[in-house]
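Exercise 7. Given the encoded structure of a 106-residue chain, write a plausible sequence.
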């Protein structure tokens, strides 16, 4: 053969995780991980009691949400993907409000 091609179960292409089964859940988990890293890199700002709520939300929507939504047009929105996104968003909001995570949340 001219080229030796290795089979893989998942591959990241242009920042989007592509799995052999086309799982939207795996892609959403990947994007949430990247967005969470960005969010917690800036955690001091988001957790500050001296920053207005509107400013926190504006920054969150401008900088963090697009990292999560990148490539989401190709996802199939299932109950598990929707629950994953809602849970992640709630964790971020609780952090911005300086509330402790719920016991079932990591």
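Solution.
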């Amino acid at each position: 053969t001219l080229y030796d091609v290795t089979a893989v179960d998942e591959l990241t292409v242009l920042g989007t995780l592509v799995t052999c089964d086309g799982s939207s859940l795996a892609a959403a988990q990947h994007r949430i991980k990247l967005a969470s890293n960005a969010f917690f890199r800036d955690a001091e700002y988001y957790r500050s009691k001296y920053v207005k709520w509107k400013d926190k939300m504006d920054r969150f929507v401008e900088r963090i949400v697009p990292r999560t939504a990148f490539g989401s047009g190709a996802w199939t929105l299932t109950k598990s993907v929707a629950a994953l996104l809602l849970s992640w968003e709630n964790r971020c909001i609780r952090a911005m409000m300086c509330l402790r995570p719920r016991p079932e949340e990591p």
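Remark. The first strand starts at residue 10 and ends at 13. Students should compare their own answers with the one above.
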